[in-house]
Amino acid sequence: MEYGLASPSDRPAKVRVHRVACVALAILATSFAGCRPDYDIAAPQVAGWSMVDPSQRHPIIVSQEPQTMEVHVAASARGLTPRQRAQILEFSDRSRAADAGNSRLVIQAPGGGANEMSSMQAVGEIRQILSDNGFQDSSIAIEAYHSGQRSNAPIRVSYLRYVAEAPVCGYWPTNLANQRDNGNYPNFGCANQHNLAVMVANPGDLLGPRTETDRAGERRDTAWNQYVKGESTASKKSEDEKIKIAK
Prior knowledge:
The chain is α+β, with helices and mostly antiparallel strands. It has a domain at 66-161: CATH 3.30.1330.60. Helices cover 34% and strands 16% of the residues. It is built from six helices and six strands. The chain has helices at 11-34, 54-57, 82-99, 116-132, 190-199, 218-228; strands at 45-46, 49-50, 61-71, 105-111, 140-146, 155-165. The strands form two sheets. A four-stranded mixed β-sheet has the order 3-6-4-5. The relative contact order is 0.14.
């Protein structure tokens, strides 16, 4: 067998083989690049500086968990005790501070047990306490659940409380002393995000602004009445409040 240069008729086939091999290698490299973790992806650069948002690299996970209190009412009770009323007030204040009015208070009354009638009377008192404390009817929900013939089934009052889950820090895959480009490292900004998640009073603030309360319309009505009568809507000032120019 002789070894020599390929004939002109064989060259296109070999060129096609080389092209197919290059395409396969390119696809393989692309697939491996798609499996790289986020911390290896180069951050966008502006004027030579890497721009990295720690909130995206180390996000804070905000979720809701139920916060529940139980009120035990005996079958012979005639409503809530003074201590139970105080506990309802404290629980409602904590729900307002932790939730900021973004979810409803749910009152679950037991049914089918010996204390069904006394529990319904206590539920009415709980709703009245919440209404007197500033809760609107739309923010209070009353549900019933089967107590299974229990004589001391409790009344459950619950709401959804926002909880912030801090990111896990401490990932140092490389030695920063050998990082010549002085770029942002994988753990960059993680400590700040972790401390923010731990210290935030209401994690719901990380999702959006709080709900607004009703406006006070007394001054608006007064100004509108003055405008209708053709009077000045400016506030009146005393002589001491006016600016005087010395001659």
